[in-house]
User: Fold Ribosomal RNA small subunit methyltransferase A from Syntrophus gentianae.
Amino acid sequence: MRSVRQILRDFDIRPEKRLGQSFLVDLSVMEKIVDIADIRREETVVEIGSGLGIMTAMIADRAGQVTAVEVDRKLIPILRERLEGHGNVELIQKDILEYDFLPKKGESPDQKVKIVGNIPYSISSPILFHILENRKKISAAVLMMQKEVADRLCAVPGTKAYGIPSVLFGLHTRISRELTVAPECFYPKPQVTSSVVKISIFEEPPFPVLDQSLFTLLVKTAFAKRRKTLFNNLKSRDWQGHDYKNLQHLLEKLGIGEMRRAEELSIQQFAELSNALSEI
Assistant:
């Protein structure tokens, strides 16, 4: 098998900074990612950023169907050539943020996809929240990302990394950190260490939420200014037309002191507060 650098030389391809391109060159890491994804023959896998198609071919050897989504138009001819022998691969030239994850024609409307990808660090947050918004169509995701982003996803209450992603993903998913990947495993070499995480999506959240939009707004408002107390952040917004006195009473009723900060609250406490606000 030709190396990533050799393929790039053969096709005269130079990684583009504007796309945040950094090609994974370590085949053993690719194999570990595919193993972590635990792909089954009946499953459909959506790959984010197929690059040169090396890991795509590994996925195709295990999956029933692969949708390879690649934004870089100049890589499409390479992917077509390299994946020609894999009849179960559909190649799509598109920004993953515009991909809707809907079942394909002939598939059951209840069928869910599994996602695998090395996501560009510059747009990792939009991609992650795009996946979260489409969670009803997704069973799990195995993603390579900047270690700091993985830290925020996996963070627990009371830690510096705990914030909006920790709470919103924590309500709907179980996240495990699977691998730490050194910069030397990429070309060009990034300035940061990477992590591979597995995101398993719950059928139903462990803590019921009456109004998902209100829950999301509450979490974003609570963490808007981290140096402020939870109460001071929340009182800046009109909650269902009720004043800050009602908010004080509600926090007291839930056992949340006025001086508490957002990073001290558990996901369950955010859910309880959201539900209480929706019932006012």
Q: What stands out?
A: The two ends are 63 Å apart (CA to CA). The first strand starts at residue 23 and ends at 24. The chain has a mean pLDDT of 93. The first helix runs from residue 4 to 10.
